[in-house]
Design goal:
Blueprint lengths: L3 H49 L5 H18 L7
Helix pairs in contact: 1-2
């Protein structure tokens, strides 16, 4: 028969484990968003480089810029600060 303290300890451990899993999921979501922002900036840089070197178009650069602006509108400009 388990005592009150044993049950309380077991419940606390379960709650702590659940909180830990939530934090890990939150961290993964943040990292995923940061990665998506970095990729969006990378595409903008590649489009600009291609345009400047004669292999890209202004339209492609404009489209990449619009993607960055949409990302910033949805997620903030933290990715721009490095």
């Amino acid at each position: 028969m388990s005592s009150f303290f044993d049950r309380a300890k077991r419940d606390a451990e379960r709650n702590l484990l659940a909180m830990g899993k939530d934090k890990v999921a939150e961290y993964k979501e943040q990292r995923s968003q940061q990665h998506a922002g970095a990729e969006t900036l990378k595409r903008l840089g590649a489009a600009y480089y291609a345009e400047r070197h004669g292999t890209g178009t202004p339209e492609a650069t404009q489209q990449a810029l619009q993607s960055v602006e949409q990302y910033v509108a949805a997620h903030g400009d933290g990715v721009l600060r490095g």
